[in-house]
Each structure stands twice: as C-alpha cells, then as structure tokens.
Design a protein that fits this description.
The structure is a homotrimer.
Chain A lengths: L5 E2 H7 L6 E3 L6 E2 L13 E3 L7 H7 L4 E4 L7 H5 L3 E4 L3 H12 L7 E2 L4 E2 L4 E2 L4 E2 L4 E2 L3 E2 L4 E2 L4 E2 L3 E3 L4 E2 L4 E4 L4 E3 L5 E3 L6 E3 L4 E2 L4 E3 L6 E3 L4 E2 L4 E2 L4 E2 L4 E2 L4 E2 L4 E2 L4 E2 L4 E2 L4 E2 L4 E2 L4 E2 L8 E3 L4 E4 L1
Parallel strand pairs in A: 4-5, 5-6, 7-10, 8-11, 9-12, 10-13, 11-14, 12-15, 13-16, 14-17, 15-20, 16-21, 17-22, 20-23, 21-24, 22-25, 23-26, 24-27, 25-28, 26-29, 27-30, 28-31, 29-32, 30-33, 31-34, 33-35
Antiparallel strand pairs in A: 1-3, 2-6, 18-19, 35-36
C-alpha cells in the first residue's frame, strides 16, 4: 500500500458527526497508517480503548503523535512535552474505525469483473463492485454494494445500498421444504418467493440465505451475518441483528432489532426472538425468546435479563 | 414470469396418481399462479393445509376459484354460490406441490454453460443442466440432474437421475483421515474411493460430501441434504434421509431409511442410526441410535419412541 | 487409472525413514494397487492395522502377496508356503499411507489453470497447482502447494510449502469485528492484518480463515482444518492442530500444538487451549482449557486428563 499522509484536518472532517475536541499542536499534524499496538510509531493513528483502566498511561506512553481518546484522558504536561495531539471523542474505538476505514483500509474499486455472469434484466446500481465469477439473476443491487467472487444471487433478490457480500455466499436459493408423496418420498414444496435485503447489510463467506417459499425472506438494515451461516426460507431478521459464524436460523423465524446470535447457534423453525435478546454461543433455541433476555445452552434457557 | 393459464384439465392430469374428485364448475376453469395466502386472488391456485382446524372456513373464505383440500372439506352452498371449484385429494399440500412445481416454478433449461470445466471422459446424461463455473472430473451424471454454479464434482463420483445440487457443493473431495508419522506430524491416509448418489437426491449450497477412503460414500435415493452440511468419507445414507442445515455426519456412519437429522446435529464416526429415527436440532450423537427413536441433546439421549 | 507395478525395492525406498525389515521373497515382488479389504487381490499392497487383536490371522488370511505389519506379526510357515512378503514397520497404517500416497493416489499436476485470476504481484512458488476459477491477491504461495477451484486468497496472505486447499476456501477475508456508532448501527472495525500459514497445512472445502484486524491470523505447520470450519480474525493455531468439520474458533483464540478440536465445536473469543488438549464433538468452550485435558459438553467441562 502506498503511504498516504492524512492531515489532522482530514481526520477531524471525518469525525464531524461526533464533535471532536483537540488538544495540542494542529499545524503540520498527520498520521500515515494504523497498526497493531506493538508496531505503533510516531506517525501511527493511535487510540485508547475506553474499556481500559490505564487510559492516561496508554495515551502518554504511545510513541504516536495523534491519539483518539475519551474525555477521561487529560492533556498532560507529558503529552504536551512530547508534542502530541489529543483528540477527545465520545467513543474512540468507533472514531478510530471511521477514520481508519475512510483513509487506511483498501476497498474494491467499483466495477464489474468481465467474468461475472449477469442476467440482462438485473438492475445494478452505481458504484457497485462485482468480482470474478459472480452469478447474478434478475435481481436488484443498490448503490455502493460489494459482491465478492463466487457469490450467487438468484432472481427476485433485492439488495440495498452499501452492502457487502463475501465470497461464496448464496442468496435466494430454493428453501428446504418438502412434502411426502403417497410412496413416502419427499417432493419439494414450491419455493417461489424472494429475498429482500436492506442497506449496510454484510453477509459472510459461504453463507446461504434461502428465498421464501411463497413470500420473502427479509434481512433488515445494518444487519451483519458472519461466515458459514444458514438463513432459511421466510426468516425475518430485524435491523442491527448480529448473526455470528456457523449459526443456523430455521424457516419462518422472526428476530427483532439488535438481536445477538452467538456462534454456532441454532433456532427452531417459526420461533420469535424479541428485540435486544442475546443468544449465547452454541445455543439450541427451541422456544420463543422474549426481548432483552439472555438465553444459552442446549436446550437454551434464560440466563438473565 | 409470463402468465400461464393452467386449465382444470391440466391440473387434474398432474394429479392422476392421487385420484382427485372435483366439485363445482369444470368448464373454463383455470389458475394462473400460486401466491402467499395474503396475496391470493381469484386466479390463484389455492389449497387448504390438512393440519388446520378451520379448513371449511379457509376454503369458503379464499377469493381463489380453484382450491385443493382433503375430504373433510365439503362443497358448501357458499362455495357453490361463489362459483368455486373444489378438488378433493388425500394430501392437499402434496397435490399443491405437484401442480405448482409442474406449472408455476421456473426451472433451469437443460444445457451446459460454456464456462463449465468438464473432464473429457465425464459421462453426462440427457437433459442435464450444468451452470456457470462448474468443475467436473471423470464422473457420471444421470438424466435430468441440475448442477448449479461453482459445484465441484470429482473423479469416481456417480450421480443418479433428477438430482439437484445447489451452488458451491463439493462432491468427492478427499476425506479427513490422517496418521501420525514418527515425528508426530500427520499425513493423509490414502483417499481413493468414490461417491455414489442415487436418484432424486438434493444437495444444498456449500455442502461437502467427501469420497470414501478405500471404498465409497453412498447417498440413497430421495435423500435430501440441506445447505452447509458435511458428509464424511465412507458415510452410508439410506433412502429418504433428511439432513438439515449445518449438520455434520462423521466418517463411516450408517443412517437407515427415513432418518431425520435436525439442524446443526453432529454424529460421531462409525455410529449407526436406525431407520426412521429422529435426531433433534443440535443433537450431539455419540452412541448408536435404534430405529424409530427420537434422540436429542448434548450428548444425545432417548427422548421417546 | 493406468496400472503401475511398484516393486518391493520402490516400496522399501519409500519406507527408508522407518527402517523396515523384510521376510520372504524379494525377487520379482510387486504390488499394483491399494484396495478396500473386501476387494484385496494377490497384487494389492496390504497392511495389518496395529489396533486389531487378530493381526496374525489377518496377515495369513489375506490373498495379498505384500503385507505391511508391526513386529507382533511373525513370518509363519503358512505365509512362507503362500509365498508372501512381510514388511515389518513400527506403524503399518502410516507406512501404508506413505507408500500408497507416493504411488497409488492421483495428484494434481503442477500448473496454473488459465481461468485463475491472480494479482500480478502475487508470488507463486515452484510446483504449485492452481485450479480453475481461483482468485488470488497480492499473496505468497510456497512450493508444492495445491489450490483447488474457487479458492479465494486475499492480499497479505502467506502460505507455506506443500499445503492443500480444497474448493471454496476463503483465506484472508475481513474479520467480523464491529463497533456501534452513535445511532446504534454497527460499523466495521478496520481489518488490515494478514494470514500466515505454515507448511503441510490442509484446509477443507468452504472453510473460511479471516485475516487479523491489526496483526495476523496464524496457522502452524502440519495443522489440518476440515470442511466448513470458521477461523476468526487473530486466531493463533499451533502445529499439528486438528480442527474437525463445522467447527468455529472465535476471534483471538490461541490453540497450542497438537490440540484436537472435535466436529462442530465452538470456542469463545480470546480463549486459550493448551497443547495436547482434546475438545470433544459439539463442545461449547467458554473457558480456557489447560494442556492435555479432555473437555466436552455445552458448556464444555473437564472430562479427564
């Protein structure tokens, strides 16, 4: 990656929404990379995690000249003597993420790889990235969305803006619904619904989101789904839902906003999980879970509220 | 999708095997789509699920003119007045699936996508669909089978007729068997077997079925495997086995006909699961399971017979 | 596969490191295949598993002329009369694996498939196989490594020698780390680290190994990861670690050498698992696990030492 000098002014512009306060030098101040704490140098953009108990010590001890911290850190004589610039923000980790993602994380350039196979009636918004070997049906993809290699998007899938799909995700495949015939052999119930995905949704590598049977599978804005998850037909996920890796959400489940689904969790079909509930790692959820409760175990039970 | 008017005659032809009985009008009767109950119109092909307690009410209340129901629904005056046609069948959900799949579900047209990489000695039957970026070795694929994008089929894999493989499935990869050398490093035990898959088998997205070590991994007719499952080397699945998403079946397991493997289940290697057994969601099966028993939990135990 | 006659001399050469002892004929002795025990013939390379209780009986009963066994098997009159050649080695299963893999298992020929999309600055070592539709960024790949179809390797990934990647593996994708903004919406924490993979590492089909956030995810030499596993950002796996199918290892976990992770196990983030520990199938590991202990269950607890 070529070195990019990012000035204090650029950093502050990126943080406008959180009204940063600056202490120390403001002229010719810049950072040119982010780094692991062990590799921090004078030009690293550094930050002090609010959960630490020795925040002042970290801010004073870092070799970095530009530091994001919360208001419990004071601009000390030591920092002044070292010529440091301290930027006070409500949530330094979030502020760091904002600035780092804007300036120091490489992004895919918008464009469609020539190997992508795309239905002529697909509607692809502006500034979309479509990687090698992608296969897209008669779907809609909103502005700024990134579709990585080997992602399959079926007909009747609608994807919002600024979404991110990792490699191998399968969106809109036929759901796993069968009916026995008179010989006892199973025969697929028709699966003609679609998938509706909001804005700022992220979907992990090799994750599968099946389309609804007769209606749609729905994924709300800002919901993030990790690698190797299975979202069955007719599932309805709210906003800001987190589904951690290897989880399985069975058919027609409804999860409210801000639900946290721990790694390797399973949820039985038709269950409802209320907003803000947290399902611990490895939970096997067979009952409805009320809002804001923490459930865990196999079978999952209330741990606390 | 272009609208297709399907006549009562065509519907009844599709249902010949289950001897339907018709009440009400038979002339100029048709349906032109299927739909979610909330979106049912006069020309929806509708059906009444036999598990409902208010079947008569549903049959009378629907705006649809053509309705599939079981013999507990009677052709009432209200239905007559509304000009409805009632088709009595033993299993309306199955009858609906049959008709809907034949007329109202889009299927891949047979053909081989030009990007597929196929071994010159592979044997591909008639009416097979092979999607983009498929990679097939010296394998046999039976009539009418659908192979979706990014599916990998290795040498020594034999697939029957009318099977369906979703994107990213890996069939016949080397099994996970190792032996320690004198330095304690693991070295792969030879994996030279194949995979034999029956007819009407369905395999989900990103599911992996490893080949046998020295003999074959076997998947029986009509068995359905969901997304993101792992079927190890030398596993033998019977007929009509259902393996739900994110399940793991370890090496050399033998599952009888009609076994139901709930989501996110694991089965220890060399275990036998008798015909008709049901393994509940999240089961961790470390013992043999007798036929027709229901086991669940971690470790899985008998729930009932 | 064309038949290859492998002479006793070639077999003994392959076993030099374990100092084999030979009894019986040595002239014109050969094997030309390996096979399932049920299909053994006179020219099968056969072996007697040391865990069997009737080893002598197996060695005498097999129709094969060349047999690998441990020192508890004696070269009997019956074997002499049958003209058998008995090769005594410390670990017959390992010796069989060595010889069979060298002579009787088909390998990919080194080469790069023309459909692979590879960054011009990627460093690809000699004798590497890169299959169809592979997508490689600015990464390094060591000598003799096999990269199967649809594998995605991101920038900043370093892979050692003689590794093996099955189809659909995603190596170096962005980790699942988020921070809430002032509206409660999650925003990705920067993920700019890499992945460092040692020698003789094997990675299963559709398995995902995320890159570190600010530093690297590390996989030690000889570690084997099965199909459909998730290795999160900043995980550090030692040497000879075995991760069985469908397992989930959360962010920043550290696993020592020779740890065995049973199928469908989950490990909470930041946990340490000591060298030689064994995690049983379906374990949900929420605490640190000391070296050489066996833990199992949900939540996982000590079973024995």
């Amino acid at each position: 990656m070529t070195v990019k000098k990012i000035s204090l002014e650029q950093i502050l512009n990126a943080l406008q929404a959180v009204s940063p306060t600056v202490h120390g030098p403001v002229e010719d101040v810049f950072a040119d990379h982010i780094a692991d704490p062990k590799k921090t140098t004078a030009t690293t953009l550094d930050w002090v995690n609010s959960i630490k108990t020795n925040k002042q010590e970290i801010a004073e001890g870092t070799p970095a000249k530009v530091i994001l911290a919360d208001a419990e850190v004071v601009y000390s004589d030591a920092m002044k003597a070292a010529g440091k610039t301290l930027i006070i923000v409500p949530n330094p980790k979030m502020a760091f993420s904002l600035v780092a993602n804007e300036f120091f994380v490489e992004k895919e350039e918008p464009g469609i790889h020539p190997t992508a196979v795309i239905h002529p009636e697909a509607e692809i918004g502006p500034d979309v990235y479509i990687g090698p070997y992608v296969h897209i049906g008669k779907a809609k993809i909103g502005k700024g969305t990134v579709i990585s290699a080997y992602v399959r998007i079926y007909d009747k899938v609608t994807i919002g803006e600024n979404c991110f799909f990792k490699e191998g995700a399968v969106i809109g495949g036929a759901g796993f619904g069968y009916e026995k015939d008179s010989q006892g052999n199973r025969f697929r119930f028709p699966q003609i619904g679609g998938v509706i995905i909001g804005n700022y949704v992220e979907v992990g590598g090799n994750t599968c989101i099946d389309r609804g049977a007769l209606s749609d599978t729905v994924i709300g804005d800002h919901t993030k789904i990790d690698n190797l998850c299975h979202i069955s037909h007719n599932v309805d996920l709210g906003r800001n839902v987190m589904v951690i890796a290897c989880s399985e959400i069975s058919g027609s489940c409804v999860l409210g906003d801000d639900v946290w689904v721990g790694p390797n969790t399973s949820i039985r079909d038709h269950r409802k999980v209320g907003a803000g509930a947290l399902l611990g790692m490895g939970s096997v959820v067979v009952k409805d879970v009320p809002a804001d409760e923490v459930w865990t175990g196999n079978p999952a039970k209330l741990l606390n509220r």
